Each structure stands twice: as structure tokens, then as C-alpha cells.
């Protein structure tokens, strides 16, 4: 009688940590579901938008960048108007000079052309994907760099993160200066707000995987709970 009890006690001692280990690992395994949607979208300047400090005195884009972590596949959303442009460059000289007139096509992209036709000021929103690792600069190239010199500029360090999603892997997305090929479907059309092309079909496929995976985990959890109940009941009698 005593022996049986001690045996029961021993197997309990062995089984319980094992079960907890299983439960813990199943919890950890269900985490990739949240890791999958790690691509982030940032709104530049938050509610202030993308303007120079003569128009919005409180803008401070480097402060906005702060300690944010930018990775491949993230998007920067620029909310501005057609009196301000969006220039992205990998070339420090271009950035420092606030001038992209002499910039090479392979290191500078004009995402939105300022149109200083003051008669018709319209809002502009652009989604700019981060497709290259390393330091990336943004500024407004309008008025010979005047807006850039008035605080409309910032730099970020793009890290690898989880790498580019399939939707952004096509070379044309990475290299094309947007305005030169408005009918290329694989790049965001500079003349329309956020292209639906970025709603990558593969993304929805990816969404499915963690869901069914989580389902399996949940089933596994249920079974483990039943097993634990069974073990507890067995220990009781
Ligand atoms: C950015 O990444 C660093 C190092 O990976 C981390 O310590 C920090 O908390 C992150 N910052 C934010 C705002 O996520
Ligand atoms: C940066 O751009 C300037 C033109 O603005 C060019 O002369 C220079 O070679 C570029 N630097 C690099 C490293 O490509
Ligand atoms: C457009 O921007 C320039 C330079 O920042 C500024 O002087 C001008 O007032 C702006 N035009 C309008 C209509 O806001
Ligand atoms: C950018 O971030 C990477 C990864 O954190 C780091 O290794 C690299 O030194 C950074 N580059 C600069 C210029 O700060
Ligand atoms: C970020 O923006 C892109 C482009 O508009 C969109 O396809 C994607 O679903 C957005 N991602 C998140 C997490 O909101």
C-alpha cells in the first residue's frame, strides 16, 4: 500500500514538470502567430503629417524617429499636400544638400512631386515601403530645398528584421523611381494613394497558417488538460 502511494507520488513528480514543459512549449509555439504580423506601418510625424516648420512649427522628424525600430517591409505613410514632396535617398550628399537635382537614379526616389501651383492645394498620402537595409534619408525637395532646410527631413536605419515580404521583392519595386513608370503594377503608383498591390495574396495565405496552427495547439492544450485531470484523478484514488 505504502509502495503504491510512493510510486504514485514519484510518477506525479516526473509527469507534472513534463506536462508543464509541454504546456509552456505549446504556449510558446502559438506565439509565431503574433510574430508573423511584425511588419509595421508608421505615420510620419503622426498627426502633424509631413510638412516644413514654417507651416507646422512643432514638427521634429528626427525626434519622431526617436527610438523606433524600422525594418525591411515596414511602410512609412506620408500625409502631406501637393506643395511638399517626398524624396527618399540612400546618398548622404543628396540629403545633406537638400537637393536631388544631380542625384543618381539608383539611390534616390521621388515618391511624390510637389506641385507648387498654389491655386489648388490638395492633400497627398503616400505609402513608402522600406526595401533596403541601412541608412535611408527622407526630405522634401521642393523650393530648392527650402522646406528641407526648414526641418522637413529625417534619417532612419533600416534593419533586416524578418526580411522583405514577397510582395516587395520584385526588383522594380526596389529600384524604380516611382514617377517614371506609373503603369508598372508592381510599384505603388505615385498618383494614387496606397496601391492595393501591397495587399499581397501571399499575406492572406500566411494568415491562414498560424490560425490552423493555433487550432492544433488549442486541441493539444485541451488534450493536455484532460490528461492532467486524469492524472490528478488517478492520484486522488
Ligand atoms: C528597438 O530594438 C531594440 C533592440 O532590438 C530594443 O531594445 C528596443 O526596445 C526596440 N525599440 C522599440 C521602440 O521597439
Ligand atoms: C551621391 O550623389 C552625388 C550627386 O548628388 C554623387 O556625386 C555621388 O557620387 C553619390 N555618392 C555615392 C556614394 O553614390
Ligand atoms: C508652399 O510652400 C512654400 C515653401 O515652404 C511656402 O512659401 C508657400 O506659402 C506654400 N504655399 C502654400 C499655398 O501653402
Ligand atoms: C544600423 O543598425 C544595424 C543593426 O542594428 C547596426 O548594425 C548598424 O551599425 C546601424 N547603422 C548605423 C549607421 O547606425
Ligand atoms: C501597411 O500598409 C500596406 C500598404 O498600404 C498594407 O498593404 C499593409 O496591410 C499594412 N500593414 C499593416 C500591418 O497595417
From TrEMBL:
Molecular function GO labels: electron transfer activity
Cellular component GO terms held in the UniProt record: plasma membrane
InterPro entries: Cupredoxin (IPR008972), Phytocyanin-like (IPR039391), Phytocyanin_dom (IPR003245)
Residue ranges constituting the Phytocyanin domain according to the UniProt record: 40-160
Family annotation (Gene3D superfamilies): Cupredoxins - blue copper proteins
Region entry Disordered, spans: 165-209
Stretch forming the signal peptide: 1-38
Keywords assigned by UniProt, alphabetized: Signal
The keyword Protein transport belongs to this UniProt entry's keyword annotation: no
Protein name per UniProt: Phytocyanin domain-containing protein
Amino acid at each position: 500500500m505504502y509502495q503504491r502511494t510512493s510510486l504514485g507520488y514519484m510518477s506525479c513528480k516526473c509527469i507534472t514538470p513534463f506536462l508543464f514543459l509541454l504546456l509552456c512549449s505549446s504556449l510558446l509555439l502559438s506565439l509565431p502567430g503574433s510574430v508573423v504580423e511584425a511588419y509595421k506601418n508608421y505615420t510620419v510625424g503622426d498627426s502633424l503629417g509631413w510638412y516644413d516648420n514654417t507651416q507646422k512649427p512643432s514638427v521634429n522628424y528626427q525626434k519622431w524617429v526617436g527610438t523606433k525600430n524600422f525594418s525591411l517591409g515596414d511602410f512609412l505613410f506620408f500625409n502631406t499636400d501637393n506643395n511638399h514632396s517626398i524624396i527618399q535617398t540612400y546618398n548622404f550628399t543628396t540629403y545633406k544638400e537638400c537637393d536631388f537635382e544631380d542625384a543618381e537614379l539608383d539611390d534616390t526616389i521621388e515618391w511624390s512631386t510637389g506641385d507648387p501651383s498654389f491655386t489648388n492645394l490638395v492633400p497627398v498620402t503616400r505609402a513608402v515601403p522600406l526595401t533596403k537595409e541601412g541608412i535611408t534619408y527622407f526630405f522634401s525637395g521642393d523650393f530648392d530645398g527650402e522646406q528641407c532646410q526648414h526641418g522637413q527631413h529625417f534619417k532612419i536605419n533600416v534593419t533586416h528584421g524578418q526580411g522583405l515580404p514577397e510582395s516587395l521583392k520584385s526588383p522594380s519595386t526596389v529600384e524604380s523611381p516611382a514617377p517614371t513608370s506609373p503603369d508598372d503594377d508592381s510599384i505603388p503608383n505615385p498618383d494614387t494613394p496606397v496601391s492595393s498591390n501591397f495587399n499581397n495574396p501571399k499575406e492572406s495565405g500566411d494568415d491562414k497558417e498560424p490560425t490552423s496552427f493555433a487550432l492544433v495547439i488549442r486541441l493539444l492544450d485541451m488534450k493536455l488538460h484532460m490528461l492532467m485531470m486524469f492524472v490528478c484523478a488517478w492520484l486522488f484514488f
